[in-house]
C-alpha cells in the first residue's frame, strides 16, 4: 500500500491576513495554475494608490499634466513667474521712483566719493580738503539764514532752501575730485574725459533735488555755484600760502591736523544723529 505523500503548507503572514480560508483547507495545486493571491492584489492596489498620490502632488505643485505636458506646464509657469517678478520690480522702481531712491542715497554717494579720494591721497592737501568741506557746510547754513528763501510747496521741509546745501556740497566734492585726477594723471585726454564724467555725475545728483521738488532751479544753481567757487578758492589758498606755512611751521601743522580730526569726528556724530534718523 503506497502512502500518500504529505504536502506541508506553511502559512505566511500575508496569507493569514488576507486569505478567507482556514489553514486546514489549503489544497496542493500546480504552480503554473496558481491564481493571483489577494496579497498580490492588495500590493498592486497599494502601488497604484501610491503612484496616483504622487501624480496628484505633482499636479498640485506644477499645475497638472503628465509627462512632457507636465514639464512644459512647469517651464511655462516658471517663465511666467520670472517675467511677473521683473515686471513688478520695474513697476516698483517707476512707482516709488528710481530718481527718488538716488536722491535719498546722494548724500551717501558724495560722502563715499569724498572719503575715497581722501584715503587715496592721504596727504596734507587731503587734510585741508576735510577742513574745507566743513567750512563749506557752515557757509551754506549762514547763507540760508541770510536769504531765508522758502522751498517749493511740494516739499514737507520747513528750513530755507537758498542755496541748496546738497548742491553746494556736491560741487565742492566735484572740484576736489577733478583737481585730484588732474594732479594724478596730468592734463590729457583721459583725465579730461574722467573729469567730464565726474562733473556730469555731480550735475545729475544736483538736478535730482529739483526733480523731487526739494529745491527750485535757482536754489540748486546758487548752491552749485557757491560750492564750485568756494572749492576753487579753498584749494587755491592751499597752493598760494597754506602749504608753505604747513611745511615751515610745526604749530600750523598741529592746528590743521587737530582741526581736521575734530571735523571728522563732528561729521561722524552728525551722520549718526541725522542721516540714520532720516533713513
UniProtKB/TrEMBL annotation:
A biological process term (GO) from this entry: protein N-linked glycosylation
Residues annotated as domain Phosphatidic acid phosphatase type 2/haloperoxidase: 126-235
Molecular function via GO: dolichyldiphosphatase activity
InterPro entries named among the record's database cross-references: PAP2/HPO
SMART domains per UniProt: acidPPc
Cellular component terms (Gene Ontology): endoplasmic reticulum membrane
Spans through the membrane: 192-208, 220-238, 250-276
Record keyword Nucleotidyltransferase present: no
Keyword vocabulary terms for this entry: Hydrolase, Membrane, Transmembrane, Transmembrane helix
Record keyword Transmembrane helix present: yes
Entry protein name: Phosphatidic acid phosphatase type 2/haloperoxidase domain-containing protein
Species annotation: Populus tomentosa (Chinese white poplar)
Amino acid at each position: 500500500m503506497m502512502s500518500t505523500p504529505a504536502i506541508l503548507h506553511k502559512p505566511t503572514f500575508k496569507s493569514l491576513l488576507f486569505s478567507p480560508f482556514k489553514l486546514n483547507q489549503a489544497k496542493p495545486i500546480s504552480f503554473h495554475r496558481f491564481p493571483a493571491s489577494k496579497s498580490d492584489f492588495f500590493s498592486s492596489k497599494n502601488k497604484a494608490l501610491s503612484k496616483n498620490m504622487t501624480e496628484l502632488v505633482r499636479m498640485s505643485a506644477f499645475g497638472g499634466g503628465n509627462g512632457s505636458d507636465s514639464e512644459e506646464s512647469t517651464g511655462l509657469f516658471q517663465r511666467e513667474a520670472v517675467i511677473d517678478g521683473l515686471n513688478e520690480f520695474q513697476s516698483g522702481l517707476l512707482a516709488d521712483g528710481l530718481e527718488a531712491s538716488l536722491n535719498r542715497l546722494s548724500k551717501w554717494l558724495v560722502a563715499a566719493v569724498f572719503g575715497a579720494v581722501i584715503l587715496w591721497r592721504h596727504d596734507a592737501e587731503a587734510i585741508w580738503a576735510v577742513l574745507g568741506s566743513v567750512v563749506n557746510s557752515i557757509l551754506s547754513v549762514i547763507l540760508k539764514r541770510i536769504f531765508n528763501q522758502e522751498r517749493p510747496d511740494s516739499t514737507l521741509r520747513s528750513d530755507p532752501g537758498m542755496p541748496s546745501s546738497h548742491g553746494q556740497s556736491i560741487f565742492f566734492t566735484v572740484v576736489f575730485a577733478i583737481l585730484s585726477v588732474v594732479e594724478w594723471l596730468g592734463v590729457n585726454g583721459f583725465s579730461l574725459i574722467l573729469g567730464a564724467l565726474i562733473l556730469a555725475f555731480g550735475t545729475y545728483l544736483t538736478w535730482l533735488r529739483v526733480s523731487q521738488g526739494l529745491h527750485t532751479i535757482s536754489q540748486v544753481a546758487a548752491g552749485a555755484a557757491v560750492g564750485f567757487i568756494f572749492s576753487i578758492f579753498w584749494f587755491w589758498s592751499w597752493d598760494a600760502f597754506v602749504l608753505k606755512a604747513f611745511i615751515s611751521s610745526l604749530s600750523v601743522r598741529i592746528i590743521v591736523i587737530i582741526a581736521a580730526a575734530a571735523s571728522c569726528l563732528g561729521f561722524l556724530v552728525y551722520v549718526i544723529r541725522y542721516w540714520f534718523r532720516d533713513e
